[in-house]
Specification:
- The termini are far apart.
- This protein has a seven-stranded mixed β-sheet, sandwiched between helices.
- Helices cover 36% and strands 15% of the residues.
- It is of the alpha/beta class and 229 residues long.
- It has six helices and seven strands.
- Helix 1 packs across helix 2 and helix 5 packs across helix 6.
- The chain has a single domain, classed as Glycerol-3-phosphate (1)-acyltransferase (3-Layer(aba) Sandwich).
């Protein structure tokens, strides 16, 4: 297993800051809720093509995202790997991607996941079980993130992007554990090492997925009320 480059992810964060703040007007709320150190998973809704880069440029720590393998073509593929992003085959059990993602968490890094699996309505209506597996296996807390762009189609150069120089709200929620009864994340900023001790049976993961979906949906609703989106 080759753990993705932490330095590369830091470079990617710098690029994301430059691009996202240069092309749009991000408003970041609750970034302090992301643990300052130790393994953590950022679970992000996915309605725009910029959701991943936007989070890379606004999160307080460098993020390694699981990205569909179709994006890793030509020079872009080498670039994504260079900035510590993870290629995943969504149509199979990609053991290499799983090992690399767990490696990020074992090294105390930040893993970014679109739990809906693909870009859609961005409402967390359909979650895959992968998020629960990573959280339970690594013992990593989950921080829900809502990326909310303008719904106004005027000024858009590309349909799947918010209007250039438009405001994009990025709202971080409270960290939580995938399984009820697990110890709470360290809110003192001390972080912790990965090493999950939770149950990983199919039934337990299904229950964790339902719990996660409820927390993510509630956060998205709160974020919309807070931002007026």
């Amino acid at each position: 297993m080759t753990v993705p480059s932490a330095k590369g992810a830091a470079v990617g964060r710098g690029i994301g800051i430059g691009l996202m703040y240069g092309l749009w007007k991000p408003r970041v709320l609750g970034a302090w809720r992301v643990p300052a150190s130790g393994p953590v998973i950022l679970a992000v809704n996915h309605a725009h093509n910029i959701d991943g880069p936007m989070l890379m440029g606004t999160a307080p720590r460098p993020v390694h995202f699981l990205i569909k393998k179709e994006a890793f073509v030509g020079p872009l593929g080498g670039f994504l790997e260079g900035i510590g992003q993870l290629k995943v085959d969504r149509d199979s059990t990609d053991r290499t991607a799983i090992a690399n993602a767990l490696g990020v968490l074992e090294q105390g890094g930040v893993l970014g996941i679109f739990p809906e699996g693909t870009r859609g309505e961005g409402d967390f209506a359909s979650l895959r079980a992968g998020l629960a597996y990573f959280a339970v296996r690594a013992g990593a807390p989950i921080v829900p993130v809502a990326v909310l762009g303008s719904t106004d189609r005027r000024g858009r150069l590309v349909k799947a992007l918010p209007p250039l120089r438009g405001r994009v709200d990025v709202v971080f929620g409270d960290a939580f554990e995938a399984q009820e009864g697990a110890r709470s994340p360290d809110k003192g900023g001390g972080g912790r090492r990965a090493g999950g001790s939770g149950r990983r049976t199919r039934k337990a993961l299904d229950e964790a997925t339902v719990r996660i979906q409820g927390r993510l949906t509630a956060h998205l609703e709160n974020a919309r009320r807070l931002t007026g989106r």
